[in-house]
Amino acid sequence: MNGKVYLVGAGPGDYKLITLKGLECIRKADVIVYDRLANINYLKEAKEDCEFINVGKASSNHLLPQDDINRLIADRALEGKVVVRLKGGDPYVFGRGGEEAELLRDEGIDFEVIPGITSPIGGLCYAGIPITHRDHASSFHVITGHPRKDGKETKEINWNALANVKGTLVFLMGIANLKSISENLIKEGKDKNTPVAFVSWATRYNQKVITATLENAYEVAIKEEIKPPTLIVVGSVVNLRDKLNFFEEKPLFGKNIVVTRSRIQSSSLVEKINDMGGNPIEIPTIKIEKIENNIELENEIKQIQAYSYIIFSSKNAVEIFFDKLNEMGYDCRVLYNIKICAVGLETAKYIKSRGINPDIVPKKYVAEGLYEELKDIVNENDRILIPRAKNARDFIINKLSEKCSVKEVITYESVIDSSKKDEALKIIQNEELDYITFASSSTVKNFITLIGEENLNKLNDLKIISIGPITTKTIEEFGLKVYRESEEATIDSMIAAISQELVLN
Ligand code: SAH
Questions:
Q1: Partners of residue 415 on adjacent β-strands
Q2: Are 109 and 127 part of one and the same domain?
Q3: Is the CB of 30 under 6 A from ligand 1?
Q4: Is residue 460 located within the same domain as residue 384?
Q5: Chain segment 444-477, per-residue pLDDT in tens
Q6: Residue 256 to residues 166, 265, 298, 435: CA-CA distances in angstroms?
Q7: Quick one: which H or E segment has residue 286?
Q8: Does residue 99 share a domain with residue 11?
Q9: Is 441 touching ligand 1 by the criterion CB < 6 Å?
Q10: Residue 492 annotated among the catalytic residues of the structure
Q11: Structure confidence by residue, pLDDT tens digits, 211-266
């Protein structure tokens, strides 16, 4: 049976600028063939056994010639696979998607094209430049600046028409030919003072926009070392950028922030950094290992009605407990007369998603805060169950045991993901990093175990952000200096600590 090919437009770069349909295709693909302009983070959405094939480097330096790419896609589909051809922007805008689709049709292979936000429109938008505007341009023209080797395209370009039409001109792949582009336009009568913008890596955290005029465009591009991928915009709409530049004004725009949490836990921090225009770089220091065949947990669930309180202090504790409950054929109704306590808003959120509103969520999101709330209400008849991680802090168990019976059940363990050492070292040695965040004492310890104490000096140039006093203490015990501590022990407050600092400077 034949497979199917989806030519998917990945959009201009910002992770969230892909269509729902495009994302759906990525999630079901057996093979993804991608090139350098497609944001590679989409690959994380793919199935575990999906095959990834990188076929593109810089514009003039393709890893694979187009004919080979066409063949590869067709062959995988003929093997019966679902193939996604992921392309930056829109597949039919200078993406050679048309050629790929033609071949598929010729070979009788089923295909679909999923449009994407093309860079001359979406990229300009993020640079604060509307491609049309009633006062400036009533048409636009998207032109390739990369002539075919056989010279056909440059001859096809009607410079006289382009120079005299009033609309916005956007050249793609034009940097190498910038000199002849600007000369041709001026020669054919375009005003040499026409504003020009170079928009590089549009919609990404490293977007860079430089403005010039048609006359000095080439000179400016050389001086500013402008490289592909860059959009060259010619027209007075460029002037609107001063007023409409919303993207580069985001609080974390351009900031590289290392996030040290386990892959499962870091998503909300990563998402928030992205939304605020920053670039989150994840170092997964720990991985969560669930205790398999947890007989002890099963036994406690069987007699769950004997408990009067259950304390959860992490998302993982919640997920593992409720999964087991469901696996044993129960649901949340068996907990109906048990008080549920959550340390941390995130933990509370996961409890809610299991259909229960936690009874007690201490204002201070640490074990001490919970103890304060419980100490006057529990008595010797109470029984408290605490399903949680191995090697968690003793505080709450010790203190509550003075008042009533407390049962700890270990449900998971955070272990160091030592396979990531080289990756982690490589990341922290990148000179462009601005911040590193630590959201718990254990991540500090795990991170340092992972990179090795001998490499601690590599953190000297980084601003260290800590989630709260306990984490700060651990960081300082290693001789490192905390740059800022967040006011509350939450992810939001940690982000605020970074963005407030940027505002103050
Ligand atoms: N299919 C793509 C275009 C592919 S041609 C689309 O619809 O956007 C490749 C050229 O597109 C690059 O050389 C550059 O000029 C432009 N380009 C694509 N994405 C870009 C981005 N994020 N920032 C700047 N230019 C980009």
A1: 287
A2: no
A3: no
A4: no
A5: 988 999 999 999 988 888 999 999 999 999 999 9
A6: 40, 19, 44, 7
A7: strand 286-290
A8: yes
A9: no
A10: no
A11: 999 999 999 999 999 999 999 999 999 999 999 999 999 989 999 999 886 544 55
